[in-house]
What we know:
Largest sheet: 6 strands, antiparallel
Helix content: 40-55%
CATH topology of the domain at 84-203: Alpha-Beta Plaits
Amino acid sequence: xxxxxxxxxxxVATLVILGAAWFMLVAPEREKASxxxxxxxxxxAQLSTAEGELANARGAEARYSxxxxxxxxxxxxxPPGQEVPSLxxxxxxxxxxxxxEFSSVTSGGSGAASASSxxxxxSVTPAAFTQMPFTFVFNGSxxxxxxxxxxxxxFTERTPSGVLQISGRLLTIQGxxxxxxxxxxxxxxxxxxxxxxxxxxYVLPPSQGLTAGATSTGPAGAGSPASATSSxxxxxxxxxVTP
Length: 243
Protein backbone atom coordinates (compact mmCIF):
# COMPACT_ATOMS: atom_id res chain seq x y z
CA UNK A 1 0.00 0.00 0.00
CA UNK A 2 1.46 3.28 -1.04
CA UNK A 3 1.54 6.47 0.99
CA UNK A 4 -1.19 7.91 -1.21
CA UNK A 5 -3.50 4.99 -0.48
CA UNK A 6 -2.87 5.37 3.23
CA UNK A 7 -3.76 9.08 3.04
CA UNK A 8 -6.96 8.31 1.15
CA UNK A 9 -7.96 5.66 3.66
CA UNK A 10 -7.23 8.05 6.54
CA UNK A 11 -9.40 10.77 4.99
CA VAL A 12 -12.24 8.34 4.31
CA ALA A 13 -12.06 6.96 7.86
CA THR A 14 -12.14 10.49 9.26
CA LEU A 15 -15.17 11.35 7.16
CA VAL A 16 -16.91 8.19 8.29
CA ILE A 17 -16.18 9.01 11.93
CA LEU A 18 -17.40 12.59 11.51
CA GLY A 19 -20.57 11.42 9.76
CA ALA A 20 -21.29 8.91 12.49
CA ALA A 21 -20.69 11.59 15.14
CA TRP A 22 -23.07 13.90 13.26
CA PHE A 23 -25.90 11.39 13.14
CA MET A 24 -25.33 10.14 16.67
CA LEU A 25 -24.65 13.41 18.50
CA VAL A 26 -25.29 16.62 16.58
CA ALA A 27 -28.42 15.72 14.63
CA PRO A 28 -30.46 14.68 17.73
CA GLU A 29 -29.43 17.86 19.53
CA ARG A 30 -30.44 19.99 16.56
CA GLU A 31 -33.80 18.23 16.50
CA LYS A 32 -34.24 18.90 20.21
CA ALA A 33 -33.31 22.54 19.67
CA SER A 34 -35.87 22.83 16.85
CA UNK A 35 -38.59 21.36 19.07
CA UNK A 36 -37.63 23.74 21.88
CA UNK A 37 -37.86 26.69 19.48
CA UNK A 38 -41.36 25.60 18.48
CA UNK A 39 -42.39 25.30 22.14
CA UNK A 40 -40.93 28.73 22.91
CA UNK A 41 -42.86 30.24 19.99
CA UNK A 42 -46.10 28.61 21.18
CA UNK A 43 -45.47 29.75 24.75
CA UNK A 44 -44.85 33.30 23.49
CA ALA A 45 -48.16 33.24 21.60
CA GLN A 46 -49.98 31.98 24.72
CA LEU A 47 -48.34 34.71 26.77
CA SER A 48 -49.46 37.38 24.31
CA THR A 49 -53.01 36.01 24.38
CA ALA A 50 -53.03 35.94 28.18
CA GLU A 51 -51.72 39.49 28.36
CA GLY A 52 -54.47 40.63 25.97
CA GLU A 53 -57.15 38.91 28.04
CA LEU A 54 -55.74 40.46 31.20
CA ALA A 55 -55.83 43.92 29.62
CA ASN A 56 -59.45 43.35 28.53
CA ALA A 57 -60.37 42.13 32.01
CA ARG A 58 -58.80 45.15 33.67
CA GLY A 59 -60.52 47.48 31.21
CA ALA A 60 -63.88 45.81 31.84
CA GLU A 61 -63.32 46.01 35.58
CA ALA A 62 -62.61 49.72 35.27
CA ARG A 63 -65.82 50.21 33.25
CA TYR A 64 -68.02 48.06 35.47
CA SER A 65 -68.94 50.72 38.01
CA UNK A 66 -69.92 53.15 35.24
CA UNK A 67 -71.95 50.48 33.43
CA UNK A 68 -73.69 49.46 36.67
CA UNK A 69 -74.58 53.07 37.46
CA UNK A 70 -75.97 53.44 33.93
CA UNK A 71 -78.18 50.37 34.31
CA UNK A 72 -79.48 51.62 37.65
CA UNK A 73 -80.15 55.00 36.04
CA UNK A 74 -82.23 53.32 33.34
CA UNK A 75 -84.62 52.31 36.11
CA UNK A 76 -85.83 55.91 36.12
CA UNK A 77 -87.05 55.42 32.53
CA UNK A 78 -88.31 51.83 32.86
CA PRO A 79 -88.64 50.87 36.53
CA PRO A 80 -89.10 47.32 37.86
CA GLY A 81 -92.46 48.36 39.38
CA GLN A 82 -95.40 50.50 38.20
CA GLU A 83 -94.44 53.51 40.35
CA VAL A 84 -97.45 55.55 39.25
CA PRO A 85 -97.05 58.24 41.96
CA SER A 86 -93.54 58.91 40.67
CA LEU A 87 -94.85 59.27 37.10
CA UNK A 88 -97.61 61.64 38.22
CA UNK A 89 -95.05 63.68 40.17
CA UNK A 90 -92.84 63.98 37.09
CA UNK A 91 -95.79 65.12 34.97
CA UNK A 92 -96.86 67.62 37.61
CA UNK A 93 -93.35 69.07 37.80
CA UNK A 94 -93.09 69.34 34.01
CA UNK A 95 -96.50 71.05 33.73
CA UNK A 96 -95.62 73.55 36.47
CA UNK A 97 -92.39 74.44 34.69
CA UNK A 98 -94.30 75.14 31.48
CA UNK A 99 -97.13 77.05 33.26
CA UNK A 100 -99.68 74.40 32.31
CA GLU A 101 -102.45 72.94 34.49
CA PHE A 102 -102.23 69.17 34.95
CA SER A 103 -105.96 68.45 34.91
CA SER A 104 -106.34 64.67 35.08
CA VAL A 105 -104.87 61.27 34.26
CA THR A 106 -106.81 58.22 33.15
CA SER A 107 -105.37 54.74 33.20
CA GLY A 108 -106.04 52.24 30.42
CA GLY A 109 -109.26 50.32 30.96
CA SER A 110 -110.35 52.46 33.93
CA GLY A 111 -112.40 55.56 34.40
CA ALA A 112 -111.15 59.09 34.87
CA ALA A 113 -108.96 59.71 37.86
CA SER A 114 -107.34 62.70 39.48
CA ALA A 115 -103.67 63.40 38.92
CA SER A 116 -102.83 61.91 42.31
CA SER A 117 -104.80 58.67 42.32
CA UNK A 118 -104.39 56.86 39.02
CA UNK A 119 -104.05 53.08 39.02
CA UNK A 120 -103.11 51.72 35.59
CA UNK A 121 -104.40 48.57 33.95
CA UNK A 122 -101.09 47.09 32.82
CA SER A 123 -100.80 44.59 29.99
CA VAL A 124 -97.92 42.16 29.64
CA THR A 125 -96.44 41.20 26.30
CA PRO A 126 -94.34 38.00 26.44
CA ALA A 127 -90.58 38.69 26.42
CA ALA A 128 -91.30 42.45 26.41
CA PHE A 129 -91.92 45.33 28.75
CA THR A 130 -95.17 45.55 30.67
CA GLN A 131 -97.22 48.25 28.94
CA MET A 132 -99.17 50.81 30.96
CA PRO A 133 -101.56 52.91 28.82
CA PHE A 134 -102.57 56.35 30.09
CA THR A 135 -104.55 59.39 29.02
CA PHE A 136 -103.29 62.72 30.35
CA VAL A 137 -105.21 66.02 30.18
CA PHE A 138 -103.48 69.40 30.44
CA ASN A 139 -104.91 72.93 30.19
CA GLY A 140 -102.99 75.94 28.96
CA SER A 141 -102.06 78.09 25.99
CA UNK A 142 -101.05 76.60 22.67
CA UNK A 143 -97.36 77.40 23.02
CA UNK A 144 -97.19 76.30 26.66
CA UNK A 145 -98.82 72.97 25.75
CA UNK A 146 -96.50 72.61 22.77
CA UNK A 147 -93.42 73.08 24.95
CA UNK A 148 -94.81 70.67 27.56
CA UNK A 149 -95.44 67.96 24.97
CA UNK A 150 -91.91 68.40 23.69
CA UNK A 151 -90.53 67.98 27.22
CA UNK A 152 -92.59 64.83 27.82
CA UNK A 153 -91.31 63.38 24.56
CA UNK A 154 -87.75 64.08 25.71
CA PHE A 155 -88.06 62.43 29.12
CA THR A 156 -85.86 59.70 27.64
CA GLU A 157 -83.91 60.40 24.45
CA ARG A 158 -80.81 59.19 22.69
CA THR A 159 -78.28 61.77 21.55
CA PRO A 160 -76.47 61.50 18.19
CA SER A 161 -73.39 60.30 20.10
CA GLY A 162 -75.36 57.34 21.50
CA VAL A 163 -75.73 58.68 25.07
CA LEU A 164 -79.11 58.15 26.74
CA GLN A 165 -80.32 61.27 28.52
CA ILE A 166 -82.97 60.41 31.10
CA SER A 167 -85.04 62.97 32.96
CA GLY A 168 -88.20 60.92 33.50
CA ARG A 169 -90.23 57.87 32.51
CA LEU A 170 -90.02 56.45 29.02
CA LEU A 171 -93.29 57.41 27.32
CA THR A 172 -94.55 56.47 23.87
CA ILE A 173 -97.05 59.12 22.78
CA GLN A 174 -99.71 57.63 20.51
CA GLY A 175 -101.83 60.73 20.02
CA UNK A 176 -102.42 64.36 20.96
CA UNK A 177 -105.79 66.11 20.79
CA UNK A 178 -106.38 69.81 21.36
CA UNK A 179 -109.74 71.35 22.19
CA UNK A 180 -110.68 74.95 22.95
CA UNK A 181 -112.02 75.63 26.43
CA UNK A 182 -113.37 78.78 28.09
CA UNK A 183 -112.64 79.50 31.74
CA UNK A 184 -115.61 80.09 34.05
CA UNK A 185 -116.20 82.50 36.91
CA UNK A 186 -114.07 85.63 37.14
CA UNK A 187 -112.06 84.49 34.11
CA UNK A 188 -115.06 83.75 31.87
CA UNK A 189 -113.59 85.73 28.99
CA UNK A 190 -110.25 83.93 29.12
CA UNK A 191 -109.92 81.19 26.53
CA UNK A 192 -107.35 78.42 26.39
CA UNK A 193 -106.76 74.92 25.14
CA UNK A 194 -107.21 71.49 26.64
CA UNK A 195 -104.57 69.03 25.47
CA UNK A 196 -105.30 65.30 25.75
CA UNK A 197 -102.37 62.89 25.36
CA UNK A 198 -102.72 59.15 24.95
CA UNK A 199 -99.41 57.55 25.90
CA UNK A 200 -97.86 54.33 27.13
CA UNK A 201 -95.40 53.93 30.00
CA TYR A 202 -93.40 50.76 30.56
CA VAL A 203 -92.35 48.44 33.38
CA LEU A 204 -89.74 45.70 33.34
CA PRO A 205 -91.08 42.13 32.91
CA PRO A 206 -92.04 40.50 36.24
CA SER A 207 -89.37 37.82 35.79
CA GLN A 208 -86.58 40.31 35.18
CA GLY A 209 -85.02 42.56 37.78
CA LEU A 210 -83.37 45.86 37.02
CA THR A 211 -79.81 44.60 37.53
CA ALA A 212 -80.41 40.82 37.11
CA GLY A 213 -78.87 40.15 40.50
CA ALA A 214 -75.76 42.27 39.96
CA THR A 215 -74.47 44.53 42.71
CA SER A 216 -72.22 47.56 42.75
CA THR A 217 -69.25 45.25 43.45
CA GLY A 218 -69.78 42.67 40.71
CA PRO A 219 -72.17 40.74 38.44
CA ALA A 220 -74.52 38.09 39.77
CA GLY A 221 -72.64 35.01 40.98
CA ALA A 222 -69.23 36.69 40.80
CA GLY A 223 -66.99 37.42 43.74
CA SER A 224 -65.57 40.52 42.11
CA PRO A 225 -66.02 42.45 38.88
CA ALA A 226 -62.77 41.06 37.45
CA SER A 227 -64.02 37.46 37.53
CA ALA A 228 -66.81 38.20 35.07
CA THR A 229 -65.00 40.44 32.63
CA SER A 230 -63.92 37.83 30.11
CA SER A 231 -67.24 38.05 28.26
CA UNK A 232 -68.16 41.29 26.54
CA UNK A 233 -65.41 43.79 25.99
CA UNK A 234 -67.58 46.42 24.34
CA UNK A 235 -68.61 49.46 26.36
CA UNK A 236 -72.34 49.61 27.18
CA UNK A 237 -74.35 52.69 26.31
CA UNK A 238 -74.03 55.30 29.05
CA UNK A 239 -77.15 56.76 30.61
CA UNK A 240 -77.08 60.29 31.91
CA VAL A 241 -79.84 61.19 34.37
CA THR A 242 -81.02 64.77 34.51
CA PRO A 243 -82.54 65.71 37.86
